[in-house]
Write a structure and sequence with these properties.
There is one protein chain. By secondary structure, the chain is mainly α. The protein has helices at residues 2-7, 12-22, 29-33, 42-46.
Length: 52
């Protein structure tokens, strides 16, 4: 996961934090796919999650 994040231009620590925060809420295959490194950029990782 770390090397894949690096290969996609993501900072690994930021990606893993984002992944572990968002993965429990991903209930569909599409939601999980949206968390893959090639679908994200650093701006996505730097956004603060909305509180629901």
């Amino acid at each position: 996961m770390v090397e894949t994040a690096k290969a996609n231009g993501l900072e690994p620590w930021a990606y893993l934090n984002h992944l572990f925060e968002q993965l429990p809420a991903a209930k569909t295959p599409e939601a999980v796919a949206a968390l893959l490194p090639h679908t994200l950029n650093m701006d996505d990782l730097n956004q603060q999650p909305s509180i629901r």
